[in-house]
């Protein structure tokens, strides 16, 4: 880790947590204490999570306690599920794999303590199948838990066996959507489901189901042991706790940085990331997760927490920041993203299936100098028409990203259009 980052509060990435799949070492440094407390007072854990202001750190930013309370209120008949979402497949996001590989016991303890708090008897660790080292580390750690007294303690608190399963995902980006993950757990292709019913009422096999991101649940043991006040104070208000930011692109020191929630983009890029690798001025930042929009140098001092970014019409997403410097063509970068969305669409919703492919095709035409005014106009129409027409957020993400690129870099799209001998081609007919 970069030396400057080491001066910041380290919770999830503290050396005591980064012991790999070594259960003995983890317990010698206090591992397991949170579970013992959760067994004594399951409702108290839910209260602590609410008071701590823990949010869904996989991109939703939804208050964690709401989903927890909804599942806890349901009867466990016959089962109740907890899915730990480690599908992590968004461009530029690479934080959960670090936690799964280097701190598997922290993740498992968070999951088991949560299961006790909501009364779940089946835990599924759902991990991107391409993450081979994290999967190997989790496999060893789960085996250690299966023969551990801690699991016996949790089962006694639940008054029935607690089942731990490690399930590699399907390898599809869309498999990270919560209802798609449930489909995969049931053994089917991960097509997102329509809502309602919501997972809390009818999830896996019709049972109450809580699904939380790896980073969210990894925070739980620390909140339980050190308290909600301590956790809130780690963040920069209104943010609470710490956040793992994945920094990549044109920066000197790319990597995962654990920083107070609400750290500014300027501090992340120029203090922790060492500034821009090319030495050129910053042009834009692509943020990770669906429904994210571009950030620009005007956003450098905005606090990177869910509420502050939402107030600016953007979103924190997974906390991934992909830095782009002056001289980089925005049209080409956006075309690459839209190709990703078109490739990732599961094809259930006609608007998404054809809309994302059409956007990708039009952007490729513009990027390769073959686009016309009509192509640009059609893209703008699609940006207005597509949001909220699909079962999941993928189609929203495709439209919002492009809309944001138009807002900040419209000139680049216009300049990339094909030129006729008399000037810009006004019609929909392709020149050449
Ligand atoms: S919006 Fe797209 S990715 Fe989502 S369910 Fe519909 S077709 Fe599939």
Explain this structure to me?
The chain is an alpha/beta fold. The chain contains 18 helices and 10 strands. Strands 3-2-1-4 form a 4-stranded parallel sheet, sandwiched between helices. A hairpin with a 5-residue loop joins strand 5 (242-249) and strand 6. Residues 1-6 and 427-432 have low confidence and may be disordered. The structure holds iron/sulfur cluster (SF4). Iron/sulfur cluster binds next to helix 16 and helix 18.
Please describe the topology of this protein.
Layout: H1 23-28, H2 33-40, H3 42-52, H4 64-73, E1 81-86, H5 96-102, H6 104-118, E2 122-127, H7 132-146, H8 149-158, E3 163-168, H9 178-185, E4 209-213, H10 214-218, H11 220-226, H12 228-234, E5 242-249, E6 255-260, H13 265-272, E7 282-287, H14 306-311, E8 320-325, H15 330-344, H16 350-367, H17 373-385, H18 394-416, E9 419-420, E10 423-424
Parallel strand pairs: 1-2, 1-4, 2-3, 5-8
Antiparallel strand pairs: 5-6, 7-8, 9-10
Helix pairs in contact: 2-3, 2-6, 2-8, 2-11, 3-4, 3-6, 3-12, 5-7, 6-8, 11-12, 15-16, 15-18, 16-17, 16-18, 17-18
Bound molecules: iron/sulfur cluster (SF4).
Short recap of the structure:
This protein is an alpha/beta fold and 432 residues long. The chain contains 18 helices and ten strands.
Unreliable spans: 1-6, 427-432
Determine the N-to-C terminus distance.
Answer: 52 Å
Name the ligand types: iron/sulfur cluster
Order of neighbouring strands in the sheet with most strands: 3-2-1-4
Q: What's the SSE pattern? A: HHHHEHHEHHEHEHHHEEHEHEHHHHEE
Average pLDDT score: 93
Number of domains: 3
Structural class: alpha/beta
The count of DSSP E runs of length 2 or more, i.e. the number of strands, is 10
């Amino acid at each position: 880790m970069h030396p400057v980052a080491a001066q910041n509060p380290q919770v999830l990435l503290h050396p005591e947590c980064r012991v790999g799949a070594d259960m003995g070492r983890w317990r010698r440094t206090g591992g397991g204490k949170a579970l013992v407390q959760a067994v004594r007072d399951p409702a108290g854990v839910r209260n602590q999570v609410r008071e701590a202001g823990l949010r869904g750190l996989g991109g939703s930013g939804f208050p964690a306690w709401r989903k927890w309370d909804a599942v806890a209120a349901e009867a466990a008949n016959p089962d109740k599920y907890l899915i730990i979402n480690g599908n992590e497949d968004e461009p530029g996001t690479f934080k959960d794999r670090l936690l799964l590989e280097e701190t598997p016991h922290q993740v498992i303890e968070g999951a088991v303590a949560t299961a006790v708090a909501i009364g779940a008897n089946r835990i599924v660790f759902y991990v991107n199948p391409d993450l081979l080292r994290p999967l190997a580390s989790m496999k060893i750690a789960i085996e250690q838990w299966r023969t551990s007294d801690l699991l016996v303690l949790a089962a006694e608190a639940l008054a029935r066996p607690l089942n731990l399963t490690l399930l590699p995902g399907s390898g599809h980006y869309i498999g990270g959507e919560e209802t798609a993950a449930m489909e995969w757990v049931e053994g089917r292709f991960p097509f997102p489901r329509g809502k309602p019913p919501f997972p809390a009422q009818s999830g896996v096999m019709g049972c109450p189901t809580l699904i939380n991101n790896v980073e969210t649940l990894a925070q739980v043991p620390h909140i339980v042991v050190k308290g909600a006040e301590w956790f809130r104070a780690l963040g920069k208000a209104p943010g609470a706790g710490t956040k793992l930011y994945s920094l990549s692109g044109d920066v000197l020191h790319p990597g995962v940085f654990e920083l107070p929630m609400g750290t500014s983009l300027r501090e992340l890029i120029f203090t922790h990331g060492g500034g821009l690798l090319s030495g050129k001025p910053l042009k834009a930042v692509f943020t990770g997760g669906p429904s994210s929009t571009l950030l620009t140098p005007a956003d450098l001092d905005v606090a990177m927490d869910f509420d502050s970014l939402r107030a600016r019409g953007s979103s924190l997403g997974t906390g991934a920041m992909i830095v782009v410097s002056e001289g980089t063509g925005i049209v080409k970068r956006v075309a690459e993203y839209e190709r990703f969305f078109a490739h990732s669409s599961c094809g259930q919703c006609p608007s998404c299936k054809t809309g994302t492919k059409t956007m990708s095709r039009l952007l490729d035409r513009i990027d390769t100098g073959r686009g016309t005014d009509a192509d640009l106009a059609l893209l703008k129409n699609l940006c207005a028409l597509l949001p909220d027409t699909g079962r999941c957020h993928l189609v929203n993400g495709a439209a919002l990203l492009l809309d944001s690129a138009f807002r900040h870099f419209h000139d680049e799209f216009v300049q990339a259009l094909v030129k006729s001998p008399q000037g810009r081609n006004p019609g929909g007919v392709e020149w050449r």
